[in-house]
Design a protein that fits this description.
By secondary structure, the protein is mostly helical. The chain has 16 helices and two strands. Strands 1-2 form a two-stranded antiparallel ribbon.
Length: 400
């Protein structure tokens, strides 16, 4: 079986891919981890967990459908001889507009509607972006590209600190800074010339669909923990930090996120490069899942800020490395080159369905005073996600 080899992409292009991915993370991470919880708390007070859960669940439904839709629409554009960058640019504009709706929301109902609009808009950005990465980065560089994806969270966390750490910034100013940052991150990939770097005509490796399904299940299990820890992180720390110290938590959490998401970056890059060279990714993914589970167990046992912060950093290291490496692997498992956008949208359900599953789990087992049971359940799910990736078989059939 002959496999077509494509020229390697330059470090500059891989940098543009990493920056664009970081822009995608900036589009949602500061909002969902800090800005939205703060706004919900201001609107709802003691009812915040219920209202916040409603916004996350409604947004997840919108995200799930929108990502598949815009991935499919970008596939149609490619089939007609066009590209995906027009859809990406439209997503940037729509995301910027959606922040205004969130800023203007004055009731819980209005806020839920605004989050639905935001999720539709941000997935109009993310769907074509991921498809561009899948078809313009050669398979032989996808491990490194996946490792570079770990840059997104610390950059987004840095913006979180900027947005909540400056007392002079109003809510309106915060929602104005975000789209400017996203646009700056997207410009290099938008301006880069389109160059397909993977087989589009069946020449090469065509992976059985069940591999993508198994990989999706594994990521879903890991991402349930990711959703709960990201969206309820402020409330988690409020449950273990004395009330007198809770006022400083948003700024402390912002700094913690930067540190916790910087640590995995060199680890993910090294393991990504090794996986490119050896095509052996399973041990790294399993170890990453084990580290994530250990961190979540530590969070369950923590009773103070220092212990909880260290445990979260351990969790974030394992989870971030797993997600980054998994992204590079999953892009190689797409079963049909004509439907990359659609299939990536279906795979993205492993990112959005956790937002339907995680919040009800938190609502059932967490209280404003305790997240112990929730964290232990998340630890078990993370371990199961690592074990699930052992079921991906590196077998393929020739397409030509």
């Amino acid at each position: 079986m002959m496999v077509r080899r494509f020229p390697l992409r330059s470090p500059g292009f891989l940098g543009a891919v990493a920056l664009a991915n970081a822009g995608g993370v900036i589009a949602y991470l500061p909002l969902l981890t800090l800005l939205l919880p703060i706004k919900v708390e201001g609107l709802s007070g003691d009812a915040r967990i219920g209202v916040f859960t409603a916004t996350v669940v409604a947004g997840a439904i919108a995200a799930s459908l929108s990502n598949i839709l815009f991935g499919w629409l970008s596939d149609r554009s490619v089939a007609r001889g066009g590209g995906r960058r027009g859809w990406l640019a439209g997503g940037v504009v729509a995301t910027a507009a959606s922040y205004a709706g969130i800023a203007l929301a004055a009731t819980p109902v209005a806020l839920v509607a605004a989050i639905v609009g935001f999720q539709a808009a941000v997935n109009a950005l993310l769907a074509p972006l991921m498809a561009i990465m899948a078809e313009e980065v050669p398979d032989s560089q996808k491990g490194v590209a996946g490792g570079l994806f770990a840059l997104g969270s610390p950059m987004a966390s840095g913006f979180s600190v900027l947005l909540v750490g400056q007392a002079m910034l109003t809510e309106t100013a915060r929602f104005a800074i975000l789209p400017a940052a996203i646009t700056a991150c997207m410009l290099p990939i938008l301006l880069a010339k389109r160059r397909i770097a993977v087989a589009n005509d069946g020449d090469g490796l065509v992976w059985p669909r069940h591999n993508l399904i198994v990989a999706g299940i594994a990521r879903l299990l890991i991402q349930i923990a990711g959703v709960v820890t990201q969206t309820y992180l402020l409330y988690y720390f409020e449950s273990i930090v004395p009330g007198s110290a809770s006022a400083a938590l948003p700024k402390q959490i912002g700094h913690l996120l930067i540190v916790a998401y910087l640590i995995p970056l060199p680890v993910a890059l090294i393991l990504g490069r090794v996986s490119d060279l050896t095509q052996g990714y399973k041990p790294a993914l399993l170890i990453a899942a084990l580290v994530a589970a250990a961190g979540l167990t530590g969070m369950a046992l923590a009773r103070s800020w220092p212990v909880g912060a260290v445990a979260f950093a351990i969790y974030a290291t394992g989870s971030s490395v797993f997600v980054a490496l998994h992204a590079g692997v999953a892009m190689q498992l797409l079963p049909n080159p004509r439907h990359r956008g659609r299939d990536l949208g279906l795979l993205n359900l492993s990112n959005t369905l956790p937002s339907l599953l995680g919040p009800p789990l938190a609502w059932l087992f967490a209280t404003p005073q305790s997240f112990v049971t929730t964290m232990l359940i998340l630890a078990a799910l993370s371990l199961a996600g690592g074990l699930a990736m052992m079921g991906v078989k590196r077998t393929a059939v020739g397409g030509g």
